[in-house]
Amino acid sequence: MNAQRKILCPVCQVNFILKETKEPGEKVICPVCGAVLIMVLKQDQIGLERPKDISLEDEIRQRMDNFARFRGYRFNEMKEALVEGLLKKHQRFGDFYCPCRIDNIQENVCPCIYTRQGDVEINNRCHCGLFWK
Ligand SMILES: [Zn+2]
User: Fold this and answer.
1) What confidence tens digit (pLDDT) does each residue in 47-64 have?
2) Per residue in 70-117, pLDDT tens?
3) How far is the CA of 8 from the centre of ligand 1 (A)?
4) Residue 92 and residue 17: Cα distance in Å, rounded?
5) What is the whole-number distance in angstroms between the Cα of residue 9 and the centre of ligand 1?
6) Are 71 and 132 in contact (CB under 8 A)?
7) Rounded CA gap, 50 and 14, in Å?
8) Quick one: signal sequence residues (predicted)?
9) Ligand 1: distance of its center to the CA of 49 in Å?
């Protein structure tokens, strides 16, 4: 595996530089959205996939915890209701779309593009009130 190569996050769709050498099956955390991902090898190409061996709840909790840690954000008592909302969205629409937004589109997958682009810095919180400054 080559170090210092760009790899696509299947959650936030951003290419990031993979700094460490990883082998297929190893865990990688997206530095942009915090998603926990697994390195896979497909037709001699390395790629990342969402883990299949953890529950959906663990997947979204790990992602939001990583993202908050990277950015220095915190949660408050609204967190549990929003985790539930995200799980319901996944159940109905197939992905962790923001429970507070109507459109179930890629940009609204948690952490949504607005949050990733700095909404919390401007408003002290994300649209939902999941992430707080
Ligand atoms: Zn990502």
Assistant:
1) 999 999 999 999 999 999
2) 999 999 999 999 999 999 999 999 999 999 999 999 999 999 999 999
3) 8
4) 33
5) 5
6) no
7) 14
8) none
9) 11
Beta carbons of 58 and 121 less than 8 angstroms apart: no
Alpha-carbon torsion, ordered 14, 109, 80, 59, to 10 deg: -60
Peptide bond preceding 111: is omega within 30 degrees of 0, i.e. cis? yes
Distance 67 CA to ligand 1 centre (A): 9
Complete domains list, the chain, with CATH: 5-49 (2.20.28.160), 56-123 (no CATH)
Count CB neighbours of 53 within 10 A: 6
Strand partners, 40: 47
Give residue 128's region: left, alpha or beta (phi > 0; psi -120 to 50): alpha
